[in-house]
């Protein structure tokens, strides 16, 4: 328990490991935790600049691969219940200029790459029951195109006997 009532600046908890080259700096092992949070950041309502969590890595030899990355969320449970591995919620209807997820990709590489093993469910599923006047999906400002395209859809399925649609547009209440 750390109580720093009255502290106004600097770090309350600081870990320095300038010579450690392998292993974990902080390791939390809680195999019996079934209710609650392993880490809980609460009531930071006065935050106006900065972030709740910042990860800054500037190394030129980050050895992340297709099976890992700078930040990883892994789940290997066999439960069949409904789960969200990453849940982002803007719980304020007044925060009309807040973006739920913003990606600023400055390298000439994919901004989003999805590798899905789903055989019977959508890979991307968008539910917008309250949208009445805006586009559900918008691709805009593609003004630098020279030989590329705005949308590429490709299928190379060897099964020519089953019925499949590459694009399906359905208006149920026309």
Sequence-ordered SSE layout with sheet pairings:
Layout (H helix, E strand, L loop, with lengths): L174
Secondary structure tally: strands:
0
| Class from secondary-structure proportions | little secondary structure
Question: What ranges have pLDDT less than 50 throughout 5 or more consecutive residues?
Answer: none
Average pLDDT taken over every residue = 87
- Range of helix content: under 10%
Mind describing the biggest β-sheet?
none
Global shape = extended
Radius of gyration: 23 Å
Q: Span between N and C termini? A: 62 Å
Number of helices: 0
Strand content: under 5%
What does this structure look like?
It contains no helices and no strands. The chain is mostly loops and 174 residues long. Helix content is 0%, strand content 0%. The model has no long low-confidence stretch (mean pLDDT 87). It is extended, with a radius of gyration of 23 Å.
Concise summary:
The chain is mostly loops and 174 residues long.
Give me some keywords for this one:
174 residues, little secondary structure, 0% helix
């Amino acid at each position: 328990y750390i109580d720093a009532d009255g502290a106004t600046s600097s770090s309350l908890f600081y870990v320095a490991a300038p010579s450690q080259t392998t292993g974990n700096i902080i390791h939390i092992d809680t195999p019996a935790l079934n209710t609650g949070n392993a880490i809980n950041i609460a009531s930071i309502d006065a935050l106006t600049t900065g972030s709740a969590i910042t990860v800054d890595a500037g190394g030129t030899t980050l050895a992340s691969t297709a099976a890992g990355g700078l930040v990883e969320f892994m789940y290997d449970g066999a439960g069949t219940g409904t789960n969200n591995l990453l849940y982002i919620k803007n719980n304020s209807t007044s925060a009309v200029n807040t973006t739920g997820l913003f990606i600023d990709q400055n390298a000439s590489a994919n901004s989003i790459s999805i590798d899905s093993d789903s055989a019977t469910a959508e890979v991307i599923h968008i539910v917008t029951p309250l949208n009445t006047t805006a586009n559900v999906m918008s691709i805009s400002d593609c003004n630098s195109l020279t030989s590329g395209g705005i949308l590429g859809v490709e299928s190379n399925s060897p099964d020519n006997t089953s019925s499949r649609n590459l694009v399906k547009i359905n208006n149920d209440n026309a």
